Fold this sequence. Notes:
- With 112 residues, chain A is an all-beta fold.
- Helix content of chain A is 0%, strand content 59%.
- The radius of gyration of chain A is 14 Å and the shape is globular.
- Chain A binds chain B through residues 31-32, 34, 36, 41-46, 49, 51, 87, 89, 91, 94, 96-105, and chain B through 4, 6, 33, 35, 42-45, 48, 50, 55-56, 58, 90, 92, 97-108, 110.
Amino acid sequence: EDQVTQSPEALRLQEGESSSLNCSYTVSGLRGLFWYRQDPGKGPEFLFTLYSAGEEKEKERLKATLTKKESFLHITAPKPEDSATYLCAVQAGGGSNYKLTFGKGTLLTVNP
Amino acid sequence: KAGVTQTPRYLIKTRGQQVTLSCSPISGHRSVSWYQQTPGQGLQFLFEYFSETQRNKGNFPGRFSGRQFSNSRSEMNVSTLELGDSALYLCASSLFGGPGETQYFGPGTRLLVL
């Protein structure tokens, strides 16, 4: 069974204080690893897809990286508007079953 | 392009009732997946529809069902509601539901069962 573990559960940063969020996974046949951002009361907003170990993607202050067992979401000089829950999901398997398995998320709070 | 839309946004029901939720995918997307999100369990996969057929199903009881129409719009039904069904129900769409495809989520329907 696919498993995704995110750490820490919650992270509080000062504005400008860089940090990283971790997503560890155990799957058979990774097809993609996805990062989403979710604001309270809203649906997850897509950020990145990573497909193979060594791959990196960047968007503004966010950078996602992937190894064979985990992914990191690096946040550089965060701003208060980066406060949200960050979700990691993996897609694995074959046939026609490509459902997403999600971690519980990391609640990020950035204080001004 | 318009995003994924879900209606209604909020619902209050009592135990034993049934409820139907609706999802309109992004134009051109043919795969629709449904997820349940609760504080304790996080996001859990309910089922996926493609070309009007349920292609995959998660570990939920038979009270949870769905369907998809020829225009790819999808509905989800929960019968005999229980208190534990209170959750945010999210719908996501993708082109074909294939490997590596990004799923785009709607805003969700918040269901409260009293």
